[in-house]
Protein 1
Amino acid sequence: VFPGVRQAQWLTKTKLVEGLPPAVQGILDNPVHGLQELEERAKYAVSHARLWDTAEVAPRREQYCPLLFENLIHTCRLMSGKYPSLSKRMLARNFRIAATWERESILLQVRGLSGILMNSMTPIPPVASKEEILATKEHVLETFYPIAPTIDLQEVNVYKELNDTGQCFRDGYPYSHPHTLFFLESANVRTDRFRPEQLRAKMLMFAFGNALAKAKALHGNDPKVLEQPVVVQSVGTDGQLFQFMVFQLNTTDLVSNDGVKNLVWIDSDQNLYEKAQCVPEVKKKVVTKPAGISGFQPDTFKKFLALYLHGTV
Amino acid sequence: MAALGARRLLRPGRRWFSETVPGAPSPPASPLYPPVVASITAKSRSAKSRRLQRFNQRVHAAATVEEKLRLYGKLQRPKYTVYPQTFALNADRWYRSFTKTVLVPGMPPRAAAAKPPVAAAEATLEAGRAPEPGAEAVGAAEAPEAAKSPEPAAGAAPHLDIGELRSLACDALLQESFYQNKKRPFLYRDQDHTPGPFLTQLVSTLAASLSSRNPLLAASSLDLNPEVNYYWHHGEEVVVHGHRKGRVDPVRFQIDDNPHLQIRVPKQLPKVVPLESDLGDVPVIDHKPSKLPLFKKQYENKVFIGSKVADPCCYGHTQFHLLPDKLKRERFIRERLEDQIEVVYRSNGIASLFAWTAAQAMYQGFWSEADVTRPFVSQAVVTDGKYFAFFCYQLNTLALTAETIKNSSRKNICWGTDSKPLYDVVEDGNVKGFNDEVLLQLVRFLLNRPKEL
């Protein structure tokens, strides 16, 4: 009912920046990484997922959305032939997250199955400079007076304040830094899927939850401004539209409304392709639309790959 | 007959009563009457064979492969469903007889190109085993010492860092079985809980890290839970009951397989032995297939390799099969059927690989009347999470129907190993008893590529 991201921003004390951060943009623009050649592979990944995978005429979204994701990840993973440190990543599926925090005397909690998480052995270096972080002090969070910011959130009696990703992974896990979260909206029926705005809000909440849990694991439970900000990325898709997000947790002091804020960079509504025609459309015996993928945008795939490579190159 | 008489009278230049040498009657350029052939619609053996010939010509003349496949599987009749993962006793002998396959124990001799990196790896193996294998779990701290031992003059190929690969494998295993907190496995779904995700992680990370060495892997497509189907005829039987009782029909089979993971590539793997080699005998079983037990069902005749014909990655590289809970080793041991454990792996390997290679051959336009002109090779790994068995299959012939099998002396060949454990046990974040042989064989499988690459 509400533009979800604005509400999520207030709840997580975050400032929004449009577009991707300069570090990721740098990876995109750098020709060394050979992103051009991978365009062919990306187009193949899309065609395979949308057109060729099933013996029926056209695959359904529940089938092609996860398959597209797997194909794109496979293409990205093949880069570890070039950058061996990319193999220090591990994908965890069906992963549960739990994080709790207080926000102006309201206790909030994020819990649940957050999709697929990619962990890495090394953390992502902070993407915003110290000046930018301090500049967020002046930023005023948007409030929704008179609507309470916790509208549409489920009120639950919480008996145990669960607090870590350590809940999901045991101690000594070598791939301990959450790197990227992936959300696949693959329900067949449109009403079961999140709208893009709601998907972005969900991505923000879960990225925040993961980052907070990691920060509390690293630096303890006391609310404070972090010396080493924790960066978690997030990618959400419904098989065609992609949302990219980079979240940087600068502070765990979330009770008050002033002070240093967290930062999030969002690149929203990136189309990977316009249309995937499984069977050629024929009107009056003339082929109007040939079978295949039309309107392929390689930039979206390049952003996906740049987020994947971020932190290692 | 009256017509013939009329023709004789009408022939020019011929006189019954004169001595004139008749001018050689020019033979008619084309016969005046159509050839005398069997009917199409009669209920006779010659009519049946004529109908079959017309069908074969239609399939031969089909313009595209999709049209060929559609005509090939158009007629639906009851057929035996062959399950690659089966508890039937001695199923691998039956499957070999259905698919005309020779089983050769052990792995085929590898080309020399693969030897140098492996030799260096074996040199590092001895050095790597000296630190106790149990401490391999976290990080690759011990491995670099093993990996840095200099390779014997092996030419340009950089040597295989077996320690690195071992740590990747151990990390995948530990993540799935130890580090990630999961809920309890669903009843009888133990395989989906730990071994399934472990296999997925292992193969995807190994394939990614070996892609620099094998350019074929860099162009490959990894399918998760694909579908592989194949339909064929083999042998003849008499229809037992129904309105078609008494007619001689081919015995139809269909394999519908769901491997856990599959790698498809755009270029074919090289052949292992020449097309006409004979490495053994195909078992002959005199019983009806239903005695295996095998049951008949009538449904769509599908031929599918995992993706449609339009896909450029139309050749198969490696399949990975996960045995379900129903076929776990403890169950066989409890029922005192220890010798059937290996049969399960073998029957899975033979049936799945036959279906895959034959479907690949059909995607290239070959079928039982147009036999393959080059051998199709694919590999498979069958595992239950701990024990791994490796198979390599070479398809030499598709001619398995009753008419074509008489003329063809080629046999399909399957090389297979016994199942060996990859590790002994996982305890407290450590993998104990890691077996490098198995990992090495897996790596060799993934590195297999045509000679030009």
Protein 2
Amino acid sequence: MAKSPETEHPNKVFGWAARDKSGLLSPFNFSRRDNGENDVTVKILFCGVCHTDLHTIKNDWGYSYYPVVPGHEIVGIATKVGKNVTKFKEGDRVGVGVITGSCQSCESCDQDLENYCPQMSFTYNAIASDGTKNYGGYSENIVVDQRFVLRFPESLPSDSGAPLLCAGITVYSPMKYYGMTEAGKHLGVAGLGGLGHVAVKIGKAFGLKVTVISSSPAKEEEAISQLGADSFLVTTDPQKMKAAIGTMDYIIDTISAVHALYPLLGLLKVNGKLIALGLPAKPLELPMFPLVLGRKMVGGSDIGGMKETQEMLDFCAKHNITADIELIKMDEINTAMERLAKSDVKYRFVIDVANSLSPP
Amino acid sequence: MERSLSSSSEEREKTVEAFGWAARNSSGHLSPFVFPRRETGAEEVRVKVLYCGICHSDLHCLKNEWHSSIYPLVPGHEIVGEVSEKGSKVSKFNLGDRVGVGCIVDSCRACESCRDDQENYCAKAVATYNGVHHDGTINYGGYSDHIVVDERYAVKIPHTLPLASAAPLLCAGISVYSPMKYFGLAGPDKHIGIVGLGGLGHIGVRFAKAFGTRVTVVSSTPGKCKDALETLGADGFLVSTDEDQMKAAMGTMDGIIDTVSASHSILPLIGLLKSNGKLVLLGANEKPFDLSAFSLIIGRKSVAGSGIGGMKETQEMIDFAAEHGVKAETEIISMDYVNTAMDRLAKGDVRYRFVIDIANTLASTRS
């Protein structure tokens, strides 16, 4: 007989889950495995709310396995470490991001690119190597192989640092890989949400000139005065868009809904690169002529490997980069999801798990 | 470097009669056409055209598929010939030199692209045919007895390259050579796919093999397999409509050069790429592709475009082709066969490039 979420593992845990594609989250009792010899058990303090959480609870991508406990921007304290664990000790402040498993023996894993391992498993909504389902960070604790646990730098606050574990690495990794770190070059950041606002800060730390590209004129003042962007381009202003044609070396496109690539490609210089990070449920339209006439490129990127994620955290600590967050209680999560769907957040919700997740 | 000004009204009145074939409207039907060409400027050469390749772009333009054709239209941008006259300031060429003229005959010469020897990406690049010369006149292409061009936009053809089979290199050749170099897809440690086995595709296979790259042809025509492997030297052949074959080849290619201009799905091609793989699109289609963001994100893949190459690189490509014996497979035709050739090209019925024998068959069509 199939075991229930509460009984499939030895240790009872409490969290919040969505049961169906209404996406409504509510209290959920489940269980987690014992702390194995390579594992770290993390008591969760904070968990960021990523747009992927929203896509998943609503089954936007068609492969949600309910009940879903989301959450992959986790910061907490190590409460147990297995006997083979060398990198962490009890009491350490640690982070857990988007992935918690990989084969650890393929070419990608050997190159510290666990995120591209064909057997990579996600922190939530994935099947672990023992066949059980992974549940994420909207919960009391999580048990993770040490390879997928990150040391949280001392100077990084737990709450505003949590979103770096997904949003941060998701923009940092392509900026390094696609060579967007040459000081003085011009970066466009399309979309000013969780990913976009962190991209502005990281771009400035690399010495780039940063222009925010957005359909919301209301976001301009903050983009410049609070986030440090050099300029702001409203996509619905045809004259300004025309004047900006061929001025950007690269664009980080964080827009999560279906949107037109043609005007963004026009903003790129010859040989320019647009990195598409948003994951709308439907395909985008890719026009050929702008690519062929200017040797332009549209590339993808998928979070980052564990080594690079640690590097990113250390980089952010050094440059005082944190997310701009709105701290919420666990029982405010459904309202937060509704607001996130309307992009009504500056710029990431973070759940104060330790202080508001009350087991029954 | 500034161009010398040569557009006085006096000079504009001095022209040299040229003879070629043109289309008068978007039916694309070609017929004899007498027209003026300018006199040879100080930095220009006059080229007696010997052969001209037929590029698929010629067909697109004749039929006004890109909605920018100006009639009468004399196509042709895979031109090889001999220098018959040279301007006083010309230093690159001598009379009698074998030269080639490709897709562009001018650019602004001052922007970043021009300064980087990437004239093809200059926003003001001027097309060899259907383009507008800086004096306001329309450019007529290589389906004609001669052409006048600034020396910067002509290349030397070494004697070791037979002229007829060198002609297609001026567009097809550089179109595949440039992205193989730029995107790091040339060399024995790479495996690439070439989609479409037509004018560009077949030369792509030959250049790739000359680089030592492992090449798999991806084609919807199973009948081309024998040729791909035996005549062109490809290492493998995938039938794009065979789901099992395509599935088995997933994640095996460092890059793909996609030469197909007709509308097609790029999702299965992205699936063929390894992590970090690059799909390079060369064909020209107005209809956008459907792009699944997921398909690029999983595996950090990318899709890029590429269009011909700069003049320096075109010369480098010609010299490389001469050194490694890279030649196009051609069907040489007479000028008066050109309309039939266009009909056949529209159906992909050519192995693999028509080349018009201008020197021997154009003049006799003049009544």
Protein 3
Amino acid sequence: MKLKQLESHLGCLEQFSNPKKELEQYPTGAHIASRMLFSAENSFGDVSGKVVADFGCGCGTLGLAASLLDAQYVIGIDIDSESLELASLNAEDLEIDMELVHCDLSNLVWKGQIIDTVVMNPPFGTRKKGADMIFLHTGLKVASQAVYSLHKTSTREHVKRTALRDFNAISAEVLCELRFDVPQLYKFHKKKEVDVAVDLWRFVPQKNQERV
Amino acid sequence: MLSSNIKGVTNGFPLVIEVQKFVEKQVDFNSDFLKNMFPKIEWKALVTAARTMGYAELPEEVDSSMLESEDFLQKFHHALLELHLEEGALICPETGRRFVVAKGIPNMLLHEDEV
């Protein structure tokens, strides 16, 4: 599938109608999502034929993108049941089978090394402090091959240090810097739209026999 | 692969499956994928899970030479990817706590005292 095609499929997805600000629910735009998964597949072969988990899947954008790029099995995890319903509808629209789990990632227990790749656009930690790192930590425990994640560029040093030193990642690489347009979704948003600089990261987890 | 996440539970896998409704889906067969997954799967758990959903074709004992058999791969494929629990529950083997499955989605959220 070409990048433009992927982007256009993702552009048709239903987004949050009533986003919950405590969960920092922001839709991952088709532009970012398509480029993220496209790089994961074309530069690293981390998607096609693999088991992919979308952490904090929201309306399912990243997981569905993985599926469109021929991931063999996709699992979406989110703490919010309304998001999961939306993800379910979006999957149906695209005629894609996506496994969904209603769970809090900070206490996810997973047996075995089934997940190859984790993709995510985690909460940035503006509401619940440290939320972004909890997501990353869990991702690195669960994935056997790679973790792709978006974090604010302003946190770059912190993310790199924590991933390598505390979460035992073998590598932590910023693939590129992107502008995430945050639309005026919540009442506390003053401007119509704001561009946040985010880094697209690829982490490689440590290979362990028994993790989590 | 989901395991009971209640605090203090040491042996939360495999979750026992309680079936109220399951569906059989059609999924494209991919033998490379199956061969790749084989060493990562807890085989006994898969056999039990498939049985709970009425599929008893999987052999109890397996070894990797069976991956050469098309017939075995088809059964493996069916049990792993095509049997889907729609309504029911996943039960913690240690505490008996039920995690409800509705519309195919298991709810693994914990109560305050379980974290």
